[in-house]
Amino acid sequence: MKKLIIASMLLIAPAFGVASGGGGVALESANINLADQASLQRGAQVFVNHCMGCHSLQYLRWNRLAADAGLTDAQVMENFVFTDANAGSQMTTSMRPEEAEKWFGTAVPDLTLVTRWRSPDWVYSYLKSFYADPARPYGVNNTVFPDVGMPHVLQLLQGVQKAVYQEHKDAAGHTTKVFDHFEAASKGSLAPAEYDRMVRDLTAFLTYAGEPMQLERQRLGVYVLLFLAVFFVLAYALKKEYWKDVH
Ligand code: HEC
C-alpha cells in the first residue's frame, strides 16, 4: 500500500512541477487565446523583429503561418521575410551555431517546441523576469532561468527591473535571500500593461508554433462530439425498436 501511495505521488508530481520555474519562483498565467488571429499576427511580428536574429522556428514554414494567421503568402513575405527565403521555406535564422557559442557561451535553441518542453506560462513569465545584475556578461539575470545566456532583448520596451529579496533566518541562524518582487528601476517605451500584452501575443504565437494542428483539432473535436450526440439518439431509438417485442 505504501509503495502504491509513493508511486502515485511520483506520477502526479510533474503536474505540479510545471507551476514553478527553474529558479523555483512561481509562474504567472499566460492566459493566451489561440483562436485570436490578431494576437497570433502581432506575436509573429514581434518574433520576427526581436527574436529571429538569434532563434529559428525550423519546424514552421512561412506559408503555414500565413494560412493559420489569416494572412496571404504575399502579406507574410512582404512584412515578415527580409531574406531570400520563399513562402515554402522554414523559419530559420541566419546566425551560425559557432557564432552563438562565441557570443553567448551556449547554443541558441530552436524555439518551435519551447512551450512544450517548458510551458506557455514558463515562457510568459521568463520574458517578464529579466532583472539588472552587473555580475552577468550582459548585465541581466533572470529569476525563472537563473544565469541565462540570453541578453534582455526587450529591455528598451520593458525598461530595467531590479529584483527585491527578503531575508529569511533558519533555525541554525543562517540567512538566505528569497526573491520577493520586481521594482522598476527605469521606464521602457511601453507601459507595463502594454508590455504584458506584447509578451502574451508572443507566447501565444510560440504556443501555436509548437502545435499548428491544435486549432484544427479543436474545430474537428466539436464535429466529433456533435456526431456522437446524433448517433446516440439514433442508436437509442433503434434499441427501443428492437426490444419492444421482446417483453
Ligand atoms: C541576441 C540573441 C538572442 C535574441 C535576439 C533572443 N534570444 Fe532567446 N536565447 C538566446 C540564448 C543564447 C539562449 C540560451 C540561453 C542559455 O541556455 O543560457 C536563449 C534562450 C531562450 C529561451 C529559453 C529556452 C530554453 O528553454 O532553454 C527562450 C524561451 C527564449 N530564448 C526566447 C526568446 C524570445 C521570445 C526572443 C525574442 C523576444 C528571444 N529569445 C531573443 C539568445 C537570444
Describe this structure in words.
By secondary structure, the protein is α+β, with helices and mostly antiparallel strands. The mean pLDDT is 90. Helix content is 49%, strand content 15%. The strands form three sheets. It has a two-stranded antiparallel sheet with strand order 1-2. It has a two-stranded antiparallel ribbon with strand order 3-4. The chain has a two-stranded antiparallel sheet with strand order 5-6. The chain folds into two domains: 192 residues, Cytochrome Bc1 Complex, Chain D, domain 2 (Orthogonal Bundle), CATH 1.10.760; 33 residues. β3 and β4 form a beta hairpin. It is built from ten helices and six strands, in the order ααβααβαααββαββαα. α2 crosses α9 and α7 runs antiparallel to α9. The site of heme C has 22 residues, from α7.
Give the terminus-to-terminus CA distance. 48 Å
What is the CATH homologous superfamily assignment of the largest domain?
Answer: Cytochrome c-like domain
Encode the helix/strand succession as letters. Answer: HHEHHEHHHEEHEEHH
Structural class: alpha+beta
Chain oligomer state: single chain
Please write the CATH class name of the largest domain.
Mainly Alpha
Q: What is the strand content?
A: 5-15%
The average pLDDT value, as a whole number, equals 90
Contiguous uncertain segments of 5+ residues: none
The total count of strands amounts to 6
Instruction: Enumerate the strands of the largest sheet in spatial order, edge to edge or round the barrel.
Output: 1-2
Bound molecules: heme C
Number of domains: 2
Largest sheet: 2 strands, antiparallel
Alpha plus pi helix count: 10
Percent in helix = 40-55%
CATH fold naming of the largest domain:
Cytochrome Bc1 Complex, Chain D, domain 2
Query: Whole-number radius of gyration?
Result: 24 Å
The CATH architecture of the largest domain would be Orthogonal Bundle
CA-based shape: extended
